[in-house]
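Reposting from the mailing list since nobody answered there.

I have sequence plus structure tokens for a pair of proteins and want to know whether others read the tokens the same way I do. The first protein:
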Amino acid sequence: MKSIVIPKAGPPSILQNADKPIPEPSGSEIRIKVEAAGLNFADIMARKGLYPDAPSFPTTMGYEVAGVVDKTGPDATELLNKRVVAFTRFNSQQEYAVTPKSYTFVIPDSLSFIDAASILVVYTTAWVLIYEMGGLRKDQTVLIQNAGGSVGLAAIDIALHLGAKTIGTASGRKHDFLKSHGLHHAIDYRTENVRNRVLAITEGKGVDLIIDPIGGKEWNVNYSLLKKTGRLGMFGASSLSDLGEMNIISKAFAFLNFLFNMPKWSPLKLMDDNKGVFGVNLGHMFDMLEEYRGAIQGILDGVESGWVRPVVDSVFAFEDVGAAHQYMEDRKNTGKIILVPTKESASSWKKQA
């Protein structure tokens, strides 16, 4: 079978399409004939050698797939031939993927494989950030950093579903789309002072919740924008991604600078400020997915009822994975990037207006 392989750390051109044996399911595992696989920023970091959770090189990444179950272990036969979407712990950006049935959700015929593969990771991450740990409620205000990213768009849907007010940062070219998607206030982080704009929008009060995938000095700015009882949720450090393009000396200095600019929150300061900070790493929550089955099923059902609106920016064939990585790394996408096994599948996809 065709499999996307990262042989060693390097630029997008390092990615390969390799031939690997088709995996076999056992026990309560299922095997999916992959029709669509999600691309996430963790894949970019892994390719650069900056993602500590990634398997050793050579490796195949991937956290989510959609397709048809073509084979099962003896304890999962009820899922044979079902259309499904599933979480995977790597090894899913390939033509066949094996995963436990507990990570798997049956999808209706009305939901395309491409849309299904765009939902699991980003909406579950956003749900934990916004609702489970962020505690956002009706009429509260959330600042969504990188609102044009796939998690950002999912966060907008969830915040609006909860009746909250939304502020988002994104490059100016994405603002019209974000406003059409329901974002109340858009800030161009490239040309505007984010802190001043947020304070102006909130009349100096600050916000109840901030979710941030950027990291570094942004965490200090975000913390200063929280009102009392406000919460800062961190789910990435994409500002580190440029380290992968540097030589080893520049990389060391840049990383030290990143560490130096990281905030040093103490329990006493948090108590005095009446603020909270937390982090989310979905890759470290796979042992809890059973606890979230109800919420995840609710999200999938939300597509039918209309409050979940998956946004797929683009679809790339496996053989064009280098271009997909570059596209994401250049921050060109508004929404999810999906990988499909063949050029025919990629070319037949039509982006919704």
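The second protein, same order (residues first, tokens after):
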Amino acid sequence: MKNPVSALLFFFFVHFQTFCQELPVEITSLVPNHYVHTTYQLIQNNPFPSNGLIVSTSVGIVLVDTGWGLEQTEKLLAQIEQKLKQKVVLCIVTHAHEDRIGGVKAFQQRGIKIIGTPLTAQKTVAQGLPAPEGILPQDTTFRVGDTTIQTYFPGAGHTDDNIVIYFPNSKVLVGGCLIKSYVAMGIGNIADANLKTWKQSVNNVRNKFPNAEFVIPGHEKWDNLTSFSRTIELVEQNSKK
């Protein structure tokens, strides 16, 4: 492109498109009545995925974790309404980082119950963000309609408040950011991590739920059970630094 003005205009057009690109929101069928929700934020100018779970129960939709931020959560709730034709009755958050609690306000505005552990609620308030109700025991089993839900705190790892959520009927485990994807090339955000206990916490989850057939990590791909071992590899690599 010989004309310098044309070249400059082309440069700004391409970069404006990149800046204004629409970040996707995805709902992917997993097993009957269970769907992975994936929302995105830009990391180093590239869309990076964050996963949660949608479960259709006999009384409405249960979500594990909000979308990544308020805008993505708004889009997610709109898609659920459009595609699944069922009201959302509950959201459970797994720890107090934006990719898990960034959309709390969207649920509160709609009058949808959103809960976390007392520690997660405290940590969210400390960040000056809208907080979930801190009423969820770290380790408990309860039912929503016809669906059994187990929550479990395995110990500190990615954060000191990270819990996992298990659905025994479907054998789906939501590991949140405690569990890294089997394709993960790095350990990610460790600002609030405990690298000394993370490995044992992962093993605690694996021992607690040996029958899990699907393990949904906080980010990236979930279709392989080697996410446990990959997480431990990444923790060990970073512990040596």
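Reply #1 (J.P.):
I read it the same way you do. The longest helix spans residues 4-19.
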